[in-house]
Design goal:
- This protein has 651 residues and is an all-alpha fold.
- The chain folds into 3 domains: 2-139, no CATH class; 146-354, no CATH class; 505-645, no CATH class.
- Helix content is 66%, strand content 1%.
- The protein contains 29 helices and 2 strands.
- The radius of gyration is 36 Å and the shape is globular.
- The two termini are 66 Å apart.
């Protein structure tokens, strides 16, 4: 009976020991090892477990696995734990552990499991856990995250002279950061210090983003390479605040800061960062509630207008990301209840240029609403549910909306764009023509009609598809014309717009391959040549367009060859010509399946893997099968690759 009693007591002791170890494991799982959540009492209890109470189990020594009793003076430590029951029964447990029979005797009697082995393993585990806790504490950093300052802001006069004259030009979709708000932020920042990023993170982000953009905007094309890394140092000042903005941003200034960073990154080829910044801005808009009409009811008029401008700028940005890269949008979904941004009346304008910039956001917002409808109603997933008649009706309705939008623009804006437009106006009309192309591309790529009605509908479908192709090529020609009028704009501003005329070159290239004998084929070869001439002009001005120019020259030469080969079709063709024509037929078939020309162009001018792979596969027979090294498209200059400007992360 006495022996059975000791065995029962020993089992209870092991169960309590297991419970304490489970508590320790739970604490380690639930608490950050670098936090202060473990109380002094808990730590003392665990230390007792490690050093004293576990010594009751003894060490297994010798071949006969006997339990040593040399640690008897330390056995009281286990009994002094916070567990009252363990304290009351401590003496019995100690005696039981000390008097356990050798393991060999337990095995001979068939008892399983041996308590000595269990307690030894548990003790070893507890000691290891305790040692690991001490190791973690020795190497932990319990401080908060820290933002790094890569470069101090310059003296106030230098900042003012560089940024103030171009603050409107740096905001290509419309004024978000007004001249007055810029001056107010500057006053506050220079009172706080040229490296103060703590008291107002949003202000610090906005000023550094604008200063970085202004440096590149106002630098000559020849000097961009030399000043680029310095400008990026100021942008890194801003980007180091990014985690704080998305986790602690609780007002409209945080949205303005994210938009300022996005504006800088849009003029680079690092599309992945651009998409992350724009998505963060859209999510913060939703978090604050700026997409709800009720949000504005309690605000005074100036404050409400500021918030509306920020909402619509973010809306336009999300639609642009959707248009360019096919990324989904959280804001641009369904009809928005927020009123469009106001424009100043002609009688209240301080200057025509100021009025033009304020109207730009309104025009861009109205166009973005139509662009969003195109994605909702004419995306490839929706087209399979529309018959030909319904598709024609939807396409006709949206095209009428686009034309009505254009007709509402002031006549002077249309004239300016035709002759000497700036980058912001060019982007506005690039977006318009790309939207027209997107509408008609839906008609070109109709799903196959039902066999029962296919015979009677085939002539109608072919005629509709041909008209759609003509409309697409007309918009493509217009985009190349717009590009030719921008030769005097800073290269930093122009880079992000070059994807539009490049997509136009691809469309005209296909039109020439489809029908080299057409009345417009020779003129289209000439328009591709016009874009090549535009790039050559940029190159002479010090712009790094060598890779893009080389690719477009090759397309121009091949288009000229295709045109001349048809004219000489009656003559005997040599082997080289026959092989070349066969390669062109393969390329023509690939291009015929393209549904989004802008995304095809961006595959060569961004760092999105999916777009890059599709672009390389499409033109592999012309540009070569070897994919360029790195993560960027083959036409991207080193200047616009973020990692070449030390925007990178050390291992």
């Amino acid at each position: 009976m006495e022996r059975n009693r000791r065995v029962v007591i020993a089992k209870k002791y092991v169960e309590r020991l297991e419970a304490r170890l489970a508590k320790l494991e739970s604490t380690l799982r639930l608490h950050d090892p670098v936090s202060d959540s473990l109380s002094r009492e808990d730590l003392a209890e665990y230390d007792d477990l490690d050093c004293d109470s576990l010594s009751d189990t003894g060490d297994l020594r010798g071949n006969d696995n006997l339990i040593s009793t040399e640690n008897e003076p330390n056995q009281g430590s286990a009994a002094t734990s916070s567990d009252d029951e363990a304290e009351s029964n401590g003496d019995d447990e100690t005696d039981t552990i000390r008097d356990l029979l050798p393991l060999t005797e337990h095995i001979q009697e068939g008892e399983y499991p041996p308590l000595a082995r269990i307690t030894s393993k548990l003790g070893e585990f507890a000691r290891n856990v305790g040692a690991e806790i001490h190791r973690m504490r020795a190497h932990e950093d319990q401080g908060p995250y820290r933002s790094r300052v890569f470069a101090k802001l310059p003296m106030r006069p230098q900042f003012d002279s560089l940024v103030e004259p171009v603050v409107a030009e740096l905001q290509q979709h419309g004024i978000i950061i007004t001249h007055e708000s810029l001056l107010q932020r500057l006053d506050q920042q220079y009172l706080a210090g040229t490296d103060s990023c703590v008291d107002d993170p949003s202000r610090w982000t906005i000023l550094n983003s604008l200063f970085a953009a202004a440096m590149l905007h106002r630098t000559t094309n020849e000097s961009l390479t030399h000043i680029s890394q310095t400008a990026w140092s100021y942008f890194k000042n801003a980007f180091s605040i990014f985690p704080q903005l998305i986790t602690r941003g609780r007002d409209v200034s945080a949205c303005e800061a994210l938009l300022a960073m996005t504006a800088f990154m849009q003029r680079t080829a690092d599309t992945q960062i651009t998409l992350q910044l724009s998505a963060a801005a859209g999510r913060l808009i939703q978090t604050l509630g700026l997409h709800r009409r009720e949000f504005y009811r309690s605000l005074d008029v100036p404050t409400a207008q500021r918030h509306q401008r920020v909402f619509w700028a973010t809306y336009v940005l999300e639609v642009e990301m959707m248009d360019k890269y096919g990324c989904g949008s959280g804001l641009a979904h369904g009809e928005t209840p927020v009123e469009l941004p106001l424009v100043c009346s002609s009688s209240s304008c301080a200057a025509p240029e100021t009025c033009k910039c304020s109207r730009l956001l309104r025009w861009r917002s109205e166009l973005a609403i139509i662009q969003r409808r195109i994605h909702d109603k004419l995306n490839p997933e929706m087209l399979v549910y529309l018959d030909i008649d319904e598709l024609q009706r939807v396409a006709r309705s949206i095209n009428e909306q686009l034309l009505a939008w254009k007709e509402c623009l002031p006549e002077d804006m249309l004239i300016e764009t035709d002759h000497h437009g700036n980058t912001a106006m060019a982007v506005l009309f690039y977006s318009f023509h790309n939207s027209v192309i997107r509408v008609y591309m839906a008609l070109i790529h109709l799903r196959a009609p039902d066999h029962s009605i296919g015979a009677c509908r085939a002539p109608q479908t072919n005629s509709m598809a041909q008209k759609a192709r003509d409309a697409c090529t007309a918009s493509a020609r217009a985009m190349i014309t717009i590009a030719r009028n921008l030769a005097s704009e800073p290269f930093y501003q122009q880079w992000e717009t070059l994807c539009y005329p490049l997509s136009a070159v691809f469309m005209l290239f296909l039109a020439i391959l489809e029908d080299p004998r057409s009345a417009t084929a020779q003129a289209d070869v000439g328009r591709i040549g016009d874009f090549v001439g535009f790039l050559e002009c940029l190159g002479r001005d010090g712009c790094d367009v060598n890779r893009l120019l080389s690719g477009c020259r090759k397309l121009h030469d091949i288009a000229s060859f295709a045109r001349s080969a048809v004219q000489e079709a009656g003559h005997v063709q040599d082997t080289e010509t026959i092989v070349m024509l066969a390669q062109l037929e393969v390329t023509r078939q690939k291009l015929s399946s393209i549904k989004d020309w802008l995304q095809l162009a961006l595959g060569f001018m961004s760092n999105l893997p999916m777009l890059r792979e599709e672009a390389e596969a499409t033109f592999s027979d012309i540009l070569g099968g070897d994919v360029p090294e790195g993560v960027y498209g083959r036409f991207v200059p080193d200047l616009f690759k973020s990692h070449t400007n030390n925007f990178a992360f050390n291992a």
